[in-house]
Amino acid sequence: xxxxxxxxxxxxxxxxxxxxxxxxxxxxxxxxxxxxxxxxxxxxxxxxxxxxxxxxxxxxxxxxxxxxxxxxxxxxxxxxxxxxxxxxxxxxxxxxxxxxxxxxxxxxxxxxxxxxxxxxxxxxxxxxxxxxxxxxxxxxxxxxxxxxxxxxxxxxxxxxxxxxxxxxxxxxxxxxxxxxxxxxxxxxxxxxxxxxxxxxxxxxxxxxxxxxxxxxxxxxxxxxxxxxxxxxxxxxxxxxxxxxxxxxxxxxxxxxxxxxxxxxxxxxxxxxxxxxxxxxxxxxxxxxxxxxxxxxxxxxxxxxxxxxxxxxxxxxxxxxxxxxxxxxxxxxxxxxxxxxxxxxxxxxxxxxxxxxxxxxxxxxxxxxxxxxxx
Length: 374
Prior knowledge:
Blueprint: H1 16-21, E1 25-29, E2 32-37, H2 42-51, E3 53-57, E4 62-68, H3 71-75, E5 91-97, E6 103-112, E7 117-123, H4 128-138, E8 143-146, E9 150-156, H5 160-165, E10 179-184, E11 187-192, E12 201-207, H6 208-219, E13 224-226, H7 229-238, H8 265-270, H9 276-285, E14 289-296, E15 307-309, E16 315-325, E17 330-338, E18 347-352, E19 355-362
Parallel strand pairs: 3-13
Antiparallel strand pairs: 1-2, 3-9, 4-7, 4-8, 5-6, 6-7, 9-12, 10-11, 11-12, 14-17, 14-19, 15-16, 15-18, 16-17, 18-19
Helix pairs in contact: 2-7
C-alpha cells in the first residue's frame, strides 16, 4: 500500500486521539495519520501479538455493502473468487482484476443474510476509492453503501478469543473466515474471525462513535496491547501474506503471485472474470515468474527492491517485502523469481549494496499459521 505524501492533508481514524494519548509514533500511510509503533517498540509489539494479543487500528481500510439481485454473480464478473457458493456468514478472499488479469486490489467478501443479496466488502485503504469507483461503474444496477462513519479494529493473537469474548459474548463460536452480527452497548457490531497476522483473531466493524471506548475496554485487559503498522508488517511477512503495492499490484496476476488457491475449480473452468484467458493459460502452463519466500544465513535482512540472483550472479528476480522476523529469529523476505528457480531449497543470493547475501527459496508461511478452524 502506498504511503501518503507528507505535504498532503491527512485523514484521521476514529482512534487517532487514543493513539496520541498512548504515545504512538505517527506517520503518513495511505492518506491517514497512522501509528507506526508505541513506546514499547516494534519487536515487543510483534512478540506480544504472537504470545498474547494485540489491538490494531485498521479503520483506514474501505468498508462497504454491495446489495441487489444476484449481487454475488454480478461481483463475480470483476473477481476470480467463487462468491456465488459463499454461504451466509462466510468470508472469502479474492481480487479485483484489470482486463488483462493484473491485480487492482485484494479484498475480503462476506455474504450477509437478506434478500436481495448483500455482500460486506473490506478493501485496502490506498485503493478503496479506485475499488468503489470500479463497482459503481461496472455494477450500476446494484446499491453500494460505503461506510464513512464506522471504525474497524483487529484483535489478533492466541488470547484474542478471551479478550473479545469478554466484551462481545458469542464471538468464540465463530471459526476462521466466518462473520456475524453482534452488539456492544446497544450498538451493532459486525465481527469476522479473520486477520492479517497468521494468528487467530477478529476484525470488528463498529460505529465510529463507539470505537474509542471499545478500544479502551479491550486495552484494559492485561493480555492486550496496542500494535502499530511496524509490527503489523513484520507479522504479515512472517505469515507469508501479500501487501498491496509491494507484493501484488496491477503488474502481477494471481497465479504468479501464488494466489491460485483463491480461485475455485469452477471459476478456473468457467472464467467470466477480467483477464480469465491469461490466468487460465498460467494455470495450464505455469507462470513465467512466481512469488516465493526467502530465508537467509546470518541476521542481515534484504529489503524491498533488492535483486535476487543465481549463485553465479545472474539476476532472476527482485524482493518485494523483506525484513527481520522476530518470531522466526532471522531475516525473511518474499519476492518474484523466474519459475525454474522457485522450488523450495533452491540456493540464491540477494544483492544488498554490492554484497551477495546467501539465501534459499523457502515455503511460506515462515512461522506456522494458527487460525481457528474449529
